[in-house]
Prior knowledge:
heterotrimer, A: mainly alpha, rod-shaped, B: mainly alpha, two-stranded antiparallel ribbon, 7 helices
Amino acid sequence: MKLRILALTLLLxxxxxxxxxxxxxxxxxxxxxxxxxxxxxxxxxxxxxxxxRLVAIAYxxxxxxxxxxxxxVRLRLSKVEREMExxxxxxxxxxxxx
Amino acid sequence: xxAFARAxxxxxxxxxxxxxxxxxxxxxxxxxxxxxxxxxxxxFVHEGRPVQDxxxxxxxxxxxxxxxxxxxxxxxxxxxxETLRALLIAPIDRPALYLGKLLGILVLLAAVEILxxxxxxxxxxxxxxxxxxxxLGLLAAGTVGFAAVGTLFAAMLVFFDVVFVxxxxxxxxxxxxx
Amino acid sequence: xxxxxxxxAVVAAAMxxxxxxxxxxxxxxSTMGLVQKIFYFxxxxxxxxxxxxxxxxxxxxxxxxxxxxxxxxxAVAGAELTSIIGLIVLxxxxxxxxxxxxxxxxxxxxxxxxxxxxxxxxxxxLLRRYGGPGSDRLAAAVALFGMANVPxxxxxxxxxxxxxxxxxxxxxxxPGMRGPFWFCVAAFLLLFTVLLALxxxxxxxxxxxxxxxxxxxxx
Lengths: 98, 178, 219
Protein backbone atom coordinates (compact mmCIF):
# COMPACT_ATOMS: atom_id res chain seq x y z
CA MET A 1 0.00 0.00 0.00
CA LYS A 2 2.74 2.36 1.01
CA LEU A 3 4.71 1.45 -2.12
CA ARG A 4 1.71 2.06 -4.30
CA ILE A 5 1.14 5.50 -2.83
CA LEU A 6 4.81 6.28 -3.26
CA ALA A 7 4.75 5.17 -6.87
CA LEU A 8 1.62 7.17 -7.55
CA THR A 9 3.09 10.22 -5.89
CA LEU A 10 6.30 9.98 -7.90
CA LEU A 11 4.29 9.52 -11.06
CA LEU A 12 2.26 12.61 -10.27
CA UNK A 13 5.34 14.59 -9.44
CA UNK A 14 7.07 13.50 -12.65
CA UNK A 15 4.14 14.33 -14.87
CA UNK A 16 2.57 17.59 -13.80
CA UNK A 17 0.79 17.88 -17.12
CA UNK A 18 -0.97 14.64 -16.41
CA UNK A 19 -1.62 15.66 -12.84
CA UNK A 20 -3.35 18.78 -14.03
CA UNK A 21 -5.94 16.76 -15.87
CA UNK A 22 -6.84 14.89 -12.73
CA UNK A 23 -9.89 16.06 -10.89
CA UNK A 24 -8.34 18.60 -8.53
CA UNK A 25 -10.70 18.29 -5.60
CA UNK A 26 -10.49 15.15 -3.58
CA UNK A 27 -13.53 14.62 -1.38
CA UNK A 28 -12.74 15.81 2.14
CA UNK A 29 -12.73 12.31 3.51
CA UNK A 30 -10.77 11.36 6.58
CA UNK A 31 -7.35 12.67 5.60
CA UNK A 32 -4.98 10.52 7.63
CA UNK A 33 -6.87 10.60 10.89
CA UNK A 34 -5.35 7.56 12.52
CA UNK A 35 -1.71 8.03 11.61
CA UNK A 36 0.54 9.92 9.24
CA UNK A 37 2.29 8.04 6.47
CA UNK A 38 5.62 9.59 5.43
CA UNK A 39 6.73 9.82 1.79
CA UNK A 40 9.88 11.27 0.27
CA UNK A 41 8.48 13.89 -2.08
CA UNK A 42 5.62 16.34 -1.80
CA UNK A 43 2.45 15.32 -3.57
CA UNK A 44 2.42 17.44 -6.66
CA UNK A 45 3.89 20.81 -7.32
CA UNK A 46 0.88 22.13 -9.19
CA UNK A 47 -2.20 22.30 -7.05
CA UNK A 48 -5.33 24.35 -6.82
CA UNK A 49 -4.55 25.52 -3.31
CA UNK A 50 -0.93 26.60 -2.83
CA UNK A 51 0.36 24.69 0.20
CA UNK A 52 3.67 26.63 0.49
CA ARG A 53 1.77 29.88 0.95
CA LEU A 54 -0.44 28.39 3.67
CA VAL A 55 2.57 26.98 5.50
CA ALA A 56 4.44 30.27 5.18
CA ILE A 57 1.47 32.22 6.54
CA ALA A 58 1.12 29.78 9.44
CA TYR A 59 4.79 30.05 10.44
CA UNK A 60 4.92 33.79 9.88
CA UNK A 61 1.84 34.21 12.04
CA UNK A 62 3.39 32.24 14.90
CA UNK A 63 6.55 34.34 14.82
CA UNK A 64 4.60 37.60 14.66
CA UNK A 65 2.32 36.62 17.55
CA UNK A 66 5.15 35.41 19.79
CA UNK A 67 7.31 38.47 19.12
CA UNK A 68 4.35 40.78 19.45
CA UNK A 69 3.45 39.24 22.78
CA UNK A 70 6.99 39.52 24.15
CA UNK A 71 7.18 43.15 23.06
CA UNK A 72 3.77 43.85 24.57
CA VAL A 73 4.71 42.33 27.93
CA ARG A 74 8.02 44.24 27.95
CA LEU A 75 6.22 47.52 27.17
CA ARG A 76 3.68 46.94 29.92
CA LEU A 77 6.46 46.01 32.33
CA SER A 78 8.46 49.15 31.63
CA LYS A 79 5.31 51.26 31.94
CA VAL A 80 4.53 49.78 35.35
CA GLU A 81 8.13 50.25 36.43
CA ARG A 82 8.14 53.89 35.36
CA GLU A 83 4.92 54.45 37.26
CA MET A 84 6.40 52.76 40.32
CA GLU A 85 9.38 55.07 40.20
CA UNK A 86 7.16 58.14 40.14
CA UNK A 87 5.10 56.87 43.05
CA UNK A 88 8.17 55.96 45.07
CA UNK A 89 9.61 59.39 44.47
CA UNK A 90 6.33 60.90 45.57
CA UNK A 91 6.39 58.90 48.79
CA UNK A 92 10.00 59.92 49.35
CA UNK A 93 9.07 63.58 48.82
CA UNK A 94 6.50 63.34 51.59
CA UNK A 95 3.10 61.90 50.84
CA UNK A 96 0.81 63.46 48.28
CA UNK A 97 2.46 66.84 48.07
CA UNK A 98 3.88 66.18 44.60
CA UNK B 1 -22.19 74.72 9.12
CA UNK B 2 -18.54 74.43 9.95
CA ALA B 3 -19.23 74.94 13.61
CA PHE B 4 -21.82 72.18 13.42
CA ALA B 5 -19.36 69.75 11.79
CA ARG B 6 -16.77 70.67 14.35
CA ALA B 7 -19.14 69.97 17.21
CA UNK B 8 -20.03 66.60 15.70
CA UNK B 9 -16.38 65.73 15.33
CA UNK B 10 -15.58 66.82 18.90
CA UNK B 11 -18.26 64.55 20.35
CA UNK B 12 -17.10 61.64 18.18
CA UNK B 13 -13.49 62.28 19.02
CA UNK B 14 -14.25 62.31 22.74
CA UNK B 15 -15.91 58.90 22.50
CA UNK B 16 -13.13 57.46 20.37
CA UNK B 17 -10.39 58.71 22.69
CA UNK B 18 -12.11 57.17 25.71
CA UNK B 19 -12.60 53.93 23.82
CA UNK B 20 -9.01 53.82 22.58
CA UNK B 21 -7.81 54.09 26.18
CA UNK B 22 -9.95 51.33 27.64
CA UNK B 23 -11.02 49.39 24.55
CA UNK B 24 -13.82 48.07 26.72
CA UNK B 25 -16.75 48.39 24.33
CA UNK B 26 -14.79 47.10 21.35
CA UNK B 27 -13.44 44.01 23.13
CA UNK B 28 -16.67 43.09 24.90
CA UNK B 29 -18.68 43.63 21.72
CA UNK B 30 -16.40 41.46 19.61
CA UNK B 31 -16.48 38.82 22.32
CA UNK B 32 -20.25 38.95 22.51
CA UNK B 33 -20.57 38.68 18.73
CA UNK B 34 -18.30 35.64 18.75
CA UNK B 35 -20.34 34.09 21.55
CA UNK B 36 -23.48 34.63 19.45
CA UNK B 37 -21.84 32.90 16.50
CA UNK B 38 -20.84 30.01 18.73
CA UNK B 39 -24.35 29.58 20.10
CA UNK B 40 -25.83 29.64 16.62
CA UNK B 41 -23.30 27.09 15.47
CA UNK B 42 -24.79 24.67 17.97
CA UNK B 43 -28.25 25.32 16.60
CA PHE B 44 -27.66 25.54 12.88
CA VAL B 45 -25.01 22.92 12.25
CA HIS B 46 -25.98 19.34 11.61
CA GLU B 47 -23.37 16.65 11.08
CA GLY B 48 -20.69 19.30 10.81
CA ARG B 49 -22.46 21.10 7.96
CA PRO B 50 -24.22 24.41 8.49
CA VAL B 51 -27.79 24.83 7.29
CA GLN B 52 -28.02 26.34 3.81
CA ASP B 53 -27.58 30.14 3.86
CA UNK B 54 -27.42 30.25 7.63
CA UNK B 55 -24.43 32.62 7.53
CA UNK B 56 -26.40 35.74 6.57
CA UNK B 57 -28.93 35.29 9.36
CA UNK B 58 -26.25 34.53 11.91
CA UNK B 59 -24.29 37.59 10.80
CA UNK B 60 -27.24 39.95 11.21
CA UNK B 61 -28.24 38.54 14.57
CA UNK B 62 -24.65 38.79 15.80
CA UNK B 63 -24.45 42.40 14.60
CA UNK B 64 -27.83 43.34 16.06
CA UNK B 65 -27.21 41.75 19.46
CA UNK B 66 -23.69 43.01 19.87
CA UNK B 67 -24.74 46.40 18.48
CA UNK B 68 -27.38 46.67 21.18
CA UNK B 69 -24.73 45.88 23.74
CA UNK B 70 -22.40 48.54 22.32
CA UNK B 71 -25.19 51.14 22.24
CA UNK B 72 -26.15 50.44 25.81
CA UNK B 73 -22.55 50.60 26.99
CA UNK B 74 -21.80 53.81 25.09
CA UNK B 75 -24.55 55.64 26.97
CA UNK B 76 -24.06 53.75 30.20
CA UNK B 77 -20.55 55.18 30.22
CA UNK B 78 -21.96 58.72 30.07
CA UNK B 79 -24.36 57.93 32.88
CA UNK B 80 -21.69 56.27 34.98
CA UNK B 81 -19.31 59.21 34.59
CA GLU B 82 -22.25 61.60 35.03
CA THR B 83 -21.14 63.38 31.90
CA LEU B 84 -24.46 63.23 30.08
CA ARG B 85 -25.67 66.42 31.71
CA ALA B 86 -22.37 68.09 30.83
CA LEU B 87 -22.90 67.10 27.23
CA LEU B 88 -26.45 68.43 27.28
CA ILE B 89 -25.52 71.84 28.65
CA ALA B 90 -22.56 72.18 26.30
CA PRO B 91 -23.13 75.05 23.86
CA ILE B 92 -23.69 72.81 20.84
CA ASP B 93 -26.77 71.87 18.87
CA ARG B 94 -28.60 68.76 19.93
CA PRO B 95 -28.47 67.31 16.37
CA ALA B 96 -24.70 67.71 16.51
CA LEU B 97 -24.66 65.78 19.75
CA TYR B 98 -26.77 63.02 18.23
CA LEU B 99 -24.68 62.83 15.06
CA GLY B 100 -21.45 62.79 17.06
CA LYS B 101 -22.66 59.91 19.20
CA LEU B 102 -23.96 58.11 16.12
CA LEU B 103 -20.62 58.48 14.32
CA GLY B 104 -18.71 57.12 17.31
CA ILE B 105 -20.97 54.08 17.47
CA LEU B 106 -20.71 53.58 13.71
CA VAL B 107 -16.93 53.54 13.92
CA LEU B 108 -17.14 50.95 16.69
CA LEU B 109 -19.62 48.78 14.83
CA ALA B 110 -17.52 49.02 11.68
CA ALA B 111 -14.49 47.80 13.62
CA VAL B 112 -16.52 44.90 14.98
CA GLU B 113 -17.84 44.03 11.52
CA ILE B 114 -14.39 44.07 9.94
CA LEU B 115 -13.52 41.24 12.32
CA UNK B 116 -16.81 39.37 12.50
CA UNK B 117 -17.95 39.36 8.87
CA UNK B 118 -14.92 37.51 7.41
CA UNK B 119 -14.91 35.20 10.41
CA UNK B 120 -18.53 34.16 9.90
CA UNK B 121 -17.90 33.77 6.16
CA UNK B 122 -14.98 31.44 6.89
CA UNK B 123 -16.73 29.47 9.58
CA UNK B 124 -19.99 28.93 7.73
CA UNK B 125 -18.41 28.59 4.30
CA UNK B 126 -20.20 31.58 2.84
CA UNK B 127 -18.87 33.12 -0.37
CA UNK B 128 -17.60 36.41 1.03
CA UNK B 129 -16.60 37.93 -2.30
CA UNK B 130 -19.48 36.72 -4.44
CA UNK B 131 -21.08 40.19 -4.55
CA UNK B 132 -18.59 42.42 -2.73
CA UNK B 133 -20.18 45.78 -3.55
CA UNK B 134 -23.71 44.62 -2.85
CA UNK B 135 -22.62 43.10 0.44
CA LEU B 136 -20.74 46.24 1.47
CA GLY B 137 -23.73 48.39 0.58
CA LEU B 138 -26.14 46.17 2.48
CA LEU B 139 -23.87 46.03 5.51
CA ALA B 140 -23.39 49.79 5.50
CA ALA B 141 -27.09 50.51 5.05
CA GLY B 142 -28.12 47.97 7.69
CA THR B 143 -25.56 49.19 10.21
CA VAL B 144 -26.31 52.87 9.68
CA GLY B 145 -30.04 52.22 9.97
CA PHE B 146 -29.65 50.14 13.08
CA ALA B 147 -27.29 52.62 14.72
CA ALA B 148 -29.43 55.64 13.77
CA VAL B 149 -32.50 54.19 15.44
CA GLY B 150 -30.51 52.66 18.26
CA THR B 151 -28.62 55.83 19.19
CA LEU B 152 -31.84 57.79 19.39
CA PHE B 153 -33.54 55.29 21.66
CA ALA B 154 -30.46 54.57 23.73
CA ALA B 155 -30.18 58.30 24.41
CA MET B 156 -33.83 58.48 25.36
CA LEU B 157 -33.70 55.41 27.56
CA VAL B 158 -30.40 56.05 29.27
CA PHE B 159 -32.01 57.07 32.58
CA PHE B 160 -34.16 53.96 32.79
CA ASP B 161 -32.91 50.85 34.50
CA VAL B 162 -34.39 48.50 31.95
CA VAL B 163 -32.41 50.16 29.18
CA PHE B 164 -31.31 46.91 27.52
CA VAL B 165 -34.74 45.32 27.34
CA UNK B 166 -36.48 48.36 25.94
CA UNK B 167 -33.58 49.19 23.69
CA UNK B 168 -33.74 45.74 22.18
CA UNK B 169 -37.48 46.12 21.65
CA UNK B 170 -37.21 49.49 19.95
CA UNK B 171 -34.20 48.77 17.81
CA UNK B 172 -35.12 45.30 16.64
CA UNK B 173 -38.66 46.16 15.71
CA UNK B 174 -37.76 48.48 12.81
CA UNK B 175 -35.03 46.10 11.73
CA UNK B 176 -37.40 43.16 11.63
CA UNK B 177 -40.28 44.93 9.97
CA UNK B 178 -38.02 46.30 7.25
CA UNK C 1 13.78 31.02 38.60
CA UNK C 2 15.24 34.44 37.91
CA UNK C 3 18.70 32.99 37.42
CA UNK C 4 17.30 30.46 35.00
CA UNK C 5 15.27 32.97 33.03
CA UNK C 6 17.93 34.29 30.67
CA UNK C 7 19.46 30.88 29.77
CA UNK C 8 15.99 29.47 29.24
CA ALA C 9 15.02 32.36 26.97
CA VAL C 10 18.22 31.89 24.98
CA VAL C 11 17.66 28.13 24.62
CA ALA C 12 14.04 28.68 23.60
CA ALA C 13 15.09 31.22 20.97
CA ALA C 14 17.79 28.88 19.64
CA MET C 15 15.32 26.00 19.46
CA UNK C 16 12.89 28.19 17.59
CA UNK C 17 15.54 29.22 15.12
CA UNK C 18 16.50 25.59 14.55
CA UNK C 19 12.99 24.07 14.43
CA UNK C 20 12.19 25.11 10.82
CA UNK C 21 15.28 23.24 9.58
CA UNK C 22 14.22 20.06 11.36
CA UNK C 23 10.73 20.40 9.98
CA UNK C 24 12.07 21.04 6.50
CA UNK C 25 14.03 17.79 6.66
CA UNK C 26 11.10 15.77 7.97
CA UNK C 27 9.38 13.53 5.42
CA UNK C 28 6.23 14.64 3.62
CA UNK C 29 2.92 13.07 4.54
CA SER C 30 1.44 10.78 1.87
CA THR C 31 -1.98 12.37 1.36
CA MET C 32 -1.53 15.93 2.58
CA GLY C 33 2.01 16.72 1.44
CA LEU C 34 3.70 19.95 2.43
CA VAL C 35 0.76 21.46 4.28
CA GLN C 36 0.91 18.70 6.90
CA LYS C 37 4.10 20.34 8.18
CA ILE C 38 1.92 22.91 9.92
CA PHE C 39 1.26 20.01 12.28
CA TYR C 40 4.66 20.37 13.98
CA PHE C 41 3.80 23.80 15.34
CA UNK C 42 0.04 23.40 15.47
CA UNK C 43 -0.05 20.32 17.70
CA UNK C 44 2.88 21.54 19.81
CA UNK C 45 0.99 24.80 20.36
CA UNK C 46 -2.06 22.78 21.29
CA UNK C 47 -0.05 21.06 24.01
CA UNK C 48 1.33 24.37 25.26
CA UNK C 49 -2.22 25.71 25.28
CA UNK C 50 -3.36 22.81 27.46
CA UNK C 51 -0.40 23.45 29.77
CA UNK C 52 -1.34 27.13 30.01
CA UNK C 53 -4.96 26.24 30.76
CA UNK C 54 -3.84 23.88 33.52
CA UNK C 55 -1.56 26.52 35.04
CA UNK C 56 -4.40 29.01 35.00
CA UNK C 57 -6.92 26.53 36.42
CA UNK C 58 -4.67 25.23 39.17
CA UNK C 59 -3.55 28.75 40.04
CA UNK C 60 -7.19 29.81 40.24
CA UNK C 61 -8.06 26.86 42.47
CA UNK C 62 -5.16 27.73 44.79
CA UNK C 63 -6.30 31.34 44.80
CA UNK C 64 -9.94 30.45 45.48
CA UNK C 65 -9.18 28.09 48.34
CA UNK C 66 -5.87 29.42 49.66
CA UNK C 67 -6.15 33.17 48.92
CA UNK C 68 -2.56 33.41 47.80
CA UNK C 69 -1.78 36.42 45.59
CA UNK C 70 1.05 34.47 43.96
CA UNK C 71 -1.44 31.82 42.79
CA UNK C 72 -3.59 34.56 41.31
CA UNK C 73 -0.60 35.90 39.38
CA UNK C 74 -0.04 32.46 37.89
CA ALA C 75 -3.71 32.22 36.99
CA VAL C 76 -3.70 35.56 35.15
CA ALA C 77 -0.49 34.75 33.29
CA GLY C 78 -1.77 31.28 32.38
CA ALA C 79 -5.07 32.62 31.11
CA GLU C 80 -3.41 35.24 28.95
CA LEU C 81 -1.08 32.63 27.49
CA THR C 82 -3.99 30.27 26.85
CA SER C 83 -5.56 33.07 24.85
CA ILE C 84 -2.38 33.91 22.93
CA ILE C 85 -1.29 30.34 22.19
CA GLY C 86 -4.91 29.39 21.55
CA LEU C 87 -5.03 32.10 18.90
CA ILE C 88 -2.03 30.48 17.21
CA VAL C 89 -3.74 27.07 17.35
CA LEU C 90 -6.99 28.48 16.00
CA UNK C 91 -5.26 30.28 13.12
CA UNK C 92 -2.76 27.61 12.05
CA UNK C 93 -5.48 24.94 12.18
CA UNK C 94 -7.70 26.52 9.50
CA UNK C 95 -4.64 27.17 7.31
CA UNK C 96 -3.96 23.45 7.39
CA UNK C 97 -7.63 22.54 7.00
CA UNK C 98 -8.01 24.73 3.90
CA UNK C 99 -5.72 22.36 2.07
CA UNK C 100 -6.43 19.08 3.80
CA UNK C 101 -10.22 19.30 4.04
CA UNK C 102 -10.99 21.97 1.45
CA UNK C 103 -12.67 24.23 4.02
CA UNK C 104 -11.30 26.71 6.52
CA UNK C 105 -13.49 25.65 9.35
CA UNK C 106 -15.65 22.67 10.18
CA UNK C 107 -18.02 22.64 13.13
CA UNK C 108 -16.83 19.31 14.48
CA UNK C 109 -16.28 18.34 18.10
CA UNK C 110 -12.57 19.18 18.33
CA UNK C 111 -12.72 22.56 16.64
CA UNK C 112 -15.87 23.66 18.40
CA UNK C 113 -14.68 22.57 21.84
CA UNK C 114 -11.33 24.29 21.32
CA UNK C 115 -13.13 27.48 20.36
CA UNK C 116 -15.35 27.19 23.44
CA UNK C 117 -12.32 26.74 25.69
CA UNK C 118 -10.55 29.68 24.09
CA UNK C 119 -13.62 31.85 24.56
CA UNK C 120 -13.83 30.86 28.23
CA UNK C 121 -10.29 32.07 28.85
CA UNK C 122 -11.00 35.25 26.89
CA UNK C 123 -14.02 35.74 29.13
CA UNK C 124 -11.69 35.35 32.10
CA UNK C 125 -9.40 38.07 30.75
CA LEU C 126 -12.28 40.44 29.98
CA LEU C 127 -13.68 39.84 33.44
CA ARG C 128 -10.35 40.57 35.06
CA ARG C 129 -9.91 43.70 33.02
CA TYR C 130 -13.34 45.27 33.22
CA GLY C 131 -15.06 43.40 36.04
CA GLY C 132 -14.12 45.86 38.75
CA PRO C 133 -13.43 44.99 42.37
CA GLY C 134 -14.26 41.45 43.45
CA SER C 135 -14.11 40.07 39.93
CA ASP C 136 -10.94 38.11 40.68
CA ARG C 137 -12.83 35.38 42.54
CA LEU C 138 -15.54 35.13 39.95
CA ALA C 139 -12.85 34.98 37.27
CA ALA C 140 -11.07 32.21 39.18
CA ALA C 141 -14.22 30.12 38.92
CA VAL C 142 -14.33 30.82 35.18
CA ALA C 143 -10.73 29.62 34.83
CA LEU C 144 -11.55 26.43 36.72
CA PHE C 145 -14.39 25.85 34.32
CA GLY C 146 -12.01 26.49 31.42
CA MET C 147 -9.53 23.97 32.76
CA ALA C 148 -12.32 21.40 33.08
CA ASN C 149 -12.70 21.73 29.31
CA VAL C 150 -9.20 20.48 28.57
CA PRO C 151 -9.88 16.72 28.81
CA UNK C 152 -13.05 17.25 26.83
CA UNK C 153 -11.13 18.98 24.05
CA UNK C 154 -8.42 16.33 24.11
CA UNK C 155 -10.68 13.28 23.85
CA UNK C 156 -13.31 14.84 21.62
CA UNK C 157 -11.61 13.50 18.48
CA UNK C 158 -11.73 9.94 19.74
CA UNK C 159 -15.32 10.03 20.96
CA UNK C 160 -17.09 11.86 18.16
CA UNK C 161 -16.78 11.43 14.42
CA UNK C 162 -14.59 14.32 13.31
CA UNK C 163 -12.38 15.35 10.42
CA UNK C 164 -9.58 16.30 12.77
CA UNK C 165 -6.72 13.76 13.17
CA UNK C 166 -7.17 11.58 16.23
CA UNK C 167 -4.87 11.57 19.24
CA UNK C 168 -3.43 8.26 18.02
CA UNK C 169 -1.50 10.22 15.38
CA UNK C 170 1.17 11.23 17.85
CA UNK C 171 2.21 7.87 19.37
CA UNK C 172 2.16 6.34 15.88
CA UNK C 173 4.46 8.95 14.34
CA UNK C 174 7.18 7.52 12.10
CA PRO C 175 10.80 8.07 13.25
CA GLY C 176 11.43 10.84 10.70
CA MET C 177 8.47 12.79 12.01
CA ARG C 178 8.77 11.90 15.66
CA GLY C 179 12.06 13.72 16.25
CA PRO C 180 11.05 17.11 14.85
CA PHE C 181 7.65 16.90 16.52
CA TRP C 182 8.93 16.31 20.04
CA PHE C 183 11.61 18.92 19.44
CA CYS C 184 8.87 21.42 18.63
CA VAL C 185 6.85 20.35 21.66
CA ALA C 186 9.90 20.91 23.87
CA ALA C 187 10.52 24.28 22.21
CA PHE C 188 6.95 25.42 22.76
CA LEU C 189 6.77 24.20 26.34
CA LEU C 190 10.04 26.00 27.06
CA LEU C 191 8.77 29.12 25.36
CA PHE C 192 5.58 28.83 27.38
CA THR C 193 7.58 28.62 30.62
CA VAL C 194 9.64 31.67 29.67
CA LEU C 195 6.57 33.69 28.73
CA LEU C 196 4.80 32.55 31.89
CA ALA C 197 7.71 33.76 34.01
CA LEU C 198 7.75 37.08 32.16
CA UNK C 199 4.02 37.61 32.47
CA UNK C 200 3.95 36.59 36.16
CA UNK C 201 6.69 39.13 36.81
CA UNK C 202 4.56 41.82 35.20
CA UNK C 203 1.61 40.87 37.38
CA UNK C 204 3.83 40.93 40.46
CA UNK C 205 5.00 44.42 39.62
CA UNK C 206 1.42 45.51 39.09
CA UNK C 207 0.43 44.24 42.51
CA UNK C 208 3.40 46.05 44.05
CA UNK C 209 2.33 49.23 42.29
CA UNK C 210 -1.21 48.83 43.62
CA UNK C 211 0.18 48.43 47.13
CA UNK C 212 2.32 51.52 46.66
CA UNK C 213 -0.73 53.50 45.59
CA UNK C 214 -2.59 52.23 48.63
CA UNK C 215 0.31 53.37 50.81
CA UNK C 216 0.19 56.83 49.21
CA UNK C 217 -3.57 57.06 49.61
CA UNK C 218 -3.32 55.90 53.22
CA UNK C 219 -1.08 58.79 54.21
